[in-house]
Structures are given as C-alpha cells and as structure tokens.
Amino acid sequence: MRKKKRNPVRTSRPEREYQRALTQVARQVGMIISGFPPGDPEAYPTIERILRQYSDTLHDWAIATASRMIADVNQQDRKAWVLRAQDMAKALRDEILNADTGVAMRGLLAEQVTLIKSLPLEAAKRVHELTLKGIEDSTRASEISQEILRSGEVSASRAMLIARTEVSRTAATLTEARAKAVGSEGYIWRTSHDGAVRESHKEMEGKFVPWSSPPTLDKLTGHAGCLPNCRCWPSPVIPE
C-alpha cells in the first residue's frame, strides 16, 4: 500500500476553527426557521426578511472570521515554504518568503465574506421552494414540513463543505502566489494516497499542471486543493 501523504501546508486547525465558526451561523439559521410554522406560506415573507437582515448583520463578523482563517493559513503556507526553501539560494528563498500575496488575500477575503453571508440566503431560498412544493402537493405536506425544519441541519452541512473546501483553496492559492512570484509555471499534483481519493484525482497524481491551465475533473475546473472536498495539493515546480 502507498503511504498516506500529507499536505506540507497544515490546514487541519484552521479548518476546524473555520468550520466551528460557520456552524454557529447555520445553527442560528435553524433557530430562526424553527420559530415559524413549517410550510405556512404566510410566514415565509417574515422568514425571508429576518434571514436577509441576518445576512446583512454578518458582514463585519464575516470579515473578521475570514481574515483570521486566511492569516492562519498564510502563516502555515509560509512555514511550508521555509522547509521547501532550505536548499535554495538565499536570494531566491527571501524572494519567495517576501512575495506580495496581498492581491490573492484580498480576493480570498471577498469570496469568503460572500460565502458566509450566503448561508442565511440559501436557507431562505430553500424554505421558499419547499413551501411552494407543499402548496402544490398537499399529500406530502407533512413530509415537506419536516424538510423545512431540517434547514438548520442542511445549512450546517453546507458550512462544513465551505470550511473544508475554502481552507484548502486558500492554501493552494497562497502557494500559487508565492510560486509564481519566482517564475514557477506550474506544479506537480499530489494526492493524500488513501482510499478516499476520487478516481479522477488519483489519475492526476504526479502530473505536471500549468498554473495557467487548471484541469477539468468530473465536470469541475480547478487546481489541486481548489475543488469541493478536494484534499489534494500543489507541489510547486521552481525554475533552476
């Protein structure tokens, strides 16, 4: 059996903390929705209004929460580069460690704020669709009402997916920014070499991927670590 490999950028702690924070939002979403009669069309406008207001109030909190995650992952990425750069010339090592990652970090922050604020909005949309379905199919009204009450649980699952995917994507994006700063044109795709690796990702193991041309796997396009639930990572190829 192949030995399980680990991403040199340690993301487990940032992921746990980010997931814990986003789960709090999902829990609040569930409490808001459960305070109204499930499936009542007259209650929906109030539910939507409250969830939209909640999304708006999350803005500053989302900035602070996402900033902590990005700063933590950035520190872990820098540590990984310190280990990678031990055998490099000092000038190149300094250039990598002092690369300007500001543009990448600002882009990541904006995307994270949007994702966090989307949790209540997606829940409102789901309640609306289920409420309409209950009106159209009265025989399933009870079943649909139970699904509405599960909205907090669904939001929690979404929060977990966001945390897992976005922490990994943040690490890969920062690695790319530092690698490109010294002329890297691509990376070697690496997987964790365990039984949970998807077949399409397993086939990418050891392949060179240009930064300018992310592959399309299972109808999704993205670099290693940037696809939903992807635990792969990029091993940058640095020019001689």
Automatic annotation (TrEMBL):
<dbReference type="Pfam" id="PF04233">
    <property type="entry name" value="Phage_Mu_F"/>
</dbReference>
<protein>
    <submittedName>
        <fullName>Phage putative head morphogenesis protein, SPP1 gp7 family</fullName>
    </submittedName>
</protein>
<dbReference type="InterPro" id="IPR006528">
    <property type="entry name" value="Phage_head_morphogenesis_dom"/>
</dbReference>
<feature type="domain" description="Phage head morphogenesis">
    <location>
        <begin position="126"/>
        <end position="232"/>
    </location>
</feature>
